[in-house]
Amino acid sequence: MAPEPADLLAPLRDDPSRSGIFCDFDGTLADIVDDPERSRPVEGAVDVLADLARAYARVGVVSGRPAAFLFDHLGPATGAGDLLLAGLYGLEVVRDGEVTPSSEAREWRPVVEEATARTRSAAPPGINVEAKGLTLVLHFRGAPDLAADAEALAEQEAADTGLVVEAGRLSFELRPPLDTSKGTVVAEAAAGLAAACFLGDDTGDLTAFDALDDLAADGASTVRVGVRSAEAPDALLRRADLVVDGPTEVVALLRRLVP
Description:
By secondary structure, the protein is an alpha/beta fold. It has two domains: 5-102 and 180-257, HAD superfamily/HAD-like (Rossmann fold); 105-175, Trehalose-6-phosphate phosphatase related protein, domain 2 (Alpha-Beta Plaits), CATH 3.30.70.1020. Helices cover 41% and strands 23% of the residues. The chain is built from ten helices and twelve strands. The protein has helices at residues 5-14, 45-55, 67-80, 103-106, 109-122, 147-161, 182-190, 206-217, 234-239, 246-257, and strands at residues 19-23, 58-62, 83-87, 92-95, 98-101, 128-131, 136-139, 164-168, 171-175, 195-200, 221-228, 242-245. Strands 5-4-3-2-1-10-11-12 form an eight-stranded mixed sheet, with helices on both faces. Strands 6-7-9-8 form a four-stranded antiparallel sheet, covered by helices on one side. Helix 8 links the parallel strand 10 (195-200) and strand 11. Helix 2 (45-55) packs across helix 3 and helix 5 runs antiparallel to helix 6. The two termini are 27 Å apart. 47% of the residues are buried.
């Protein structure tokens, strides 16, 4: 018999001063939308993050979104406590209200800007090129039949520039070839904690699950939460200790963690 959610969450809620709560943004705190710039946290998400940040040793949102985007839409929670906002899979973070990119990532900005300009010029109608500063994304959500074209364009750009390609949700992202992921962010932020959880809904969140597994091997209590949607990968849902249905249920689960 699978453990009850209350049993899985008990180690976190019983000792918040030694626990960490981490989550993704899109599909986890926000509904999935066609236009990335229109994504917003669902009702209650900002408030519950603020409450958690006041109580727990570490609370963070770790996302493929630019850190500035996270700060703009989760800023009230940031002001309420020590909330970690890590954007672009950890290539940049918000510190004291300012976006700080890693020194290694900063060196790749001109390469990314040039690649963005080229892909925008070469992309056929239906492929939307999103500039994120230190990464760029080729979206084909509005034209799924162009998946092969988007992949070919991304792979060619990677071959020409040294950027690496990561498949996402109906998209391909080009980013610097650095050892940074949601998993590296969670591993660093949760180091030394007695308990930690991560909530996510996409392939990129598997690295955060890996980080939790390493923490568990060192004796920490961990909970991997998968957020189910029509696009959530089976691999993530299979590895999850607990599965919830969409951002509204994520907020409800987080509310249960408030002491």
